[in-house]
Amino acid sequence: MPASTRHHRALAVFVHCLGILAAVPALPTAAPEAAAAPRPPAVTPQPTAAAPLAPAGAPAPTGAAPGPVVTRPPVAMVARVTEPTPPSAPPAIAPPSRAPASAPAQQVTVAVATETSPAPRYRIQVRNVSNSPLETTVRQELPPGSSTTAISGGGRSTPAGGSTTEVTWRLRLPAHSTTTLGTALAATAPGRPLTAPTCAFTSDGSRPYDCASATWQAAAAPAAEVTEAPPWRRYPVLLAGLAVLLVISAALVWVWRRRRGRRVTAAALSTGGGAEGGRGTVYPRPAAPSPVRRRRTPPVWVLVGAAVVALAAVVGTAGWTATRQVASIDTQKQPTSGAWVGSAVTGSLGVPLRESAFEFTVYRMTCGAPGTAGKAAGGGAAPSNGRRCEATVGVRNVTGDHQPWHSELQRAYLPGGRWVSTDELATRSANLGRDVFADPMAAGTRMVFPLVFTVDGRDPPRQLELRSGVFSAGVRVQMP
User: Fold this and answer.
1) Residue 99: enclosing H or E segment and its boundaries?
2) Residues 4-56: pLDDT tens digits?
3) Higher pLDDT residue, 128 or 78?
4) Which of 124, 294, 418, 441: disulfide with 397, CB 3.0–4.6 Å?
5) Secondary structure (DSSP) of 7-53
6) Distance between CA 472 and CA 344 in Å, rounded?
7) Per-residue pLDDT at 193 exceeds 60
8) Start-to-end Cα distance in the chain
9) Are 386 and 454 contacting, i.e. CB atoms less than 8 angstroms apart?
10) 309 Cβ partners below 8 Å, 6+ apart?
């Protein structure tokens, strides 16, 4: 056998043996003391015939030979020693994630609708879905600068700070009952939408049950008849007229040149015949030098007219193109960067604003007096002139999966560009100890709760910025 073939076979056997050793699991090793000690054999007890017991006081049998009594030692039961086995690896299962938070059962629901009327009118339905009567406080935030003309159900109109006004009702709702309220506002400028958010709170007005909003739009006025522009102001008509003028000018120049050439040929033939009337002879005539003819150019007015027409066509086409491009620019579009998900949305109180994962609606914003912030729920010190601003926010998960969100991403912007994040301890205290950021929101869930921001100074926040994630563009709510 050649040496090379023998070496290859030896290498193949070696590799094969390594594969077998790798495939065989490692056997557990016994402790050195257990390995050194001999294993005792297992003893199986044999059944023996039991001798009948004699009653007490009976004489011993006569046939029995006297002798020492032999007792059988007890049979030792030796258990088989089993080798310890190593602990098995934990199963490859993902660690359990946080359970998504579901919306708590609502006791009171609110629905707001508008009525078709020349002036703004709102219809509010407050329903108690629980099995016991409840006392509730209903507050409707009116648009800035508006005033009420009629309030039903014993409501009162009170200023809410600044230029805003709110209507308040104190109701006692029987179990499974529905109460209808209504407000009417003074007529406003046509075409101005008015949004009036409404919330139902607990009897002390500290915690919201539910909120809703509606936007009133004035009846659409009949569209004015649009008159078409005169023909001389339409760009296609102007361009077509210029093209026709160019074609007519070119045709006139061609006809003029052709007629002039014919006249020159006829004049040359008439001067070359001589006195013989143009009759031919046997002998050729001597060649007469023909006069040098100068090449004629078009008149100046033709060139100037053609240049003016061409310039007008170019200027008209450029102006029409620029007008179309400028008109197609969207001035309301927000600039976005490639790092953000979606585009930023801006709105006012009571308007639902949707971003990549959540739909936010800010229904109300109230601030205490400066210096009334006090201490946080955990004992932390607040600014000396600080105060707490509480925003009633509705959040809806519009995705098909549960979504987490964080308190640090919810901001209140103050005048001058400064901002503060959510006060977690104060927000938990306002929600009766419940942490609304602890668990992700389940798919399709809607929750209404207060968010508290601790600010310093006398000016309230001018804008709220709410977002679901770090890279989400979020929504911005302008405060009145």
Assistant:
1) none
2) 566 667 777 777 777 777 666 555 544 444 444 455 454 444 444 444 444 44
3) 128
4) 441
5) HHHHHHHHHHHHHHHHHSPPPPPPPHHHHHSPPPPPPPPPP-PPPPP
6) 9
7) yes
8) 99
9) yes
10) 242, 245, 246, 249
